[in-house]
Amino acid sequence: LSIEDNPTGGNTYWLKNEAVSLFDGSFNRELVTPVVSPEPTATFHGEAFDSQTYYLLSPYQENATYKSGVVSATVPVEQIPVKDGISHQSLLALGTVSPEGNAVPSTVLKSAVAFVKLPFTSSSEVSRIDFSAIGGETLAGNVELSLNGDIPECGDGENTVSSVALAQTYGTFGEGTYYLCVRPADLSEGYKLSFTLKDGTLKVIRD
Questions:
Q1: Is the pTM value of this prediction over 0.85?
Q2: Is 31 helix (H, G, I), strand (E, B) or coil?
Q3: DSSP labels for 119-173?
């Protein structure tokens, strides 16, 4: 498996023990990669019932479901910052694979989310960033994923929210570029960016 549509312009690398969901029509199966070092393409192992076509979701989500060409999944409301990259737990990607004979099937997953680019030109005192849709459009929470040809489409599910956060567990944002993953949406009334500093001070930007 590999993933397309990385906004950094580079590859999306798989890490050891990362997993994807495979839907065989009956169950959400967890497939795991044994790669030792980061790789842009990786093999995943697991078991599934026979099917002409399998839907695949990255990353693996235990509560994700599949029915009639629609995968119900979750865009995380609070995401993990990765300097000059994207956390795999936030980058939802979708695809299908159709086995032929005894050959090991392969496919390319495509991103089902949009990206908010947040560059820092120097070290900062910021420990958390909140991105909100002023008009209330869905940005995170439960989403319904489907494929139009091989292009993922992302619709609203239940329990959606109009804001998403990028939060440092420890420390602050250093120099580099960070990305938020959100449900694609036209923001009719613009957005609000809220920066929380390590001392608790809040700074807000509206657009």
A1: yes
A2: strand
A3: EESS--SEEEEEEEETT----EEEEEEEEETTEEEEEEEEEEESEEEEE-SSS--
Q: Kindly provide the residue ranges of all beta strands, DSSP E only, lying in 9-69, ordered along the sequence.
A: 19-23, 28-32, 54-58, 65-67
Strands 78-79 and 163-167, by their bridges, are parallel
Helix (H, G, I), strand (E, B) or coil at 207: coil
Paired tokens of 45: 């192992």
The single-letter code of the amino acid at 50 is: D
- What is the Cα–Cα distance from 5 to 66, expressed in whole angstroms? 23
Query: Taking all residues of the chain, what is their mean pLDDT, rounded to a whole number?
Result: 89
State how beta strands 108-111 and 65-67 pair. Answer: unpaired
Q: List, for residues 16-74, the tens digit of each pLDDT value.
A: 888 999 999 889 999 998 877 778 888 888 888 888 899 999 999 999 999 999 999 99
- In the three-class reduction of DSSP (H, G, I as helix; E, B as strand; rest coil), residue 145 is classed as strand
